[in-house]
Design brief:
Number of strands: 0
Mean pLDDT: 88
Radius of gyration: 11 Å
Low-confidence stretches: none
Largest sheet: none
Order of helices and strands: HH
Oligomer: single chain
Structural class: mainly alpha
Number of domains: 1
Shape: globular
Length: 58
């Protein structure tokens, strides 16, 4: 299994279609029940960083 990393993102990202796509993939693969908090996003770190860096610029 690959190493998991923790990221904190602004709440405003929740309204962004590109971030919503990541959340939809997370829901499909893992569901949204996480008793300890946080979400697991099923994508490579590079992909996640590309999406979030593009949102930082907008």
């Amino acid at each position: 299994e690959t190493e998991k990393k923790r990221f904190v993102v602004p709440v405003s990202y929740l309204n962004e279609p590109s971030f919503q796509d990541l959340l939809s993939k997370a829901e499909e693969e893992f569901g949204f029940h996480h008793p300890m908090g946080g979400l697991t996003i099923p994508c490579r770190e590079e992909t996640f960083r590309l999406v979030t860096s593009s949102l930082n610029r907008s």
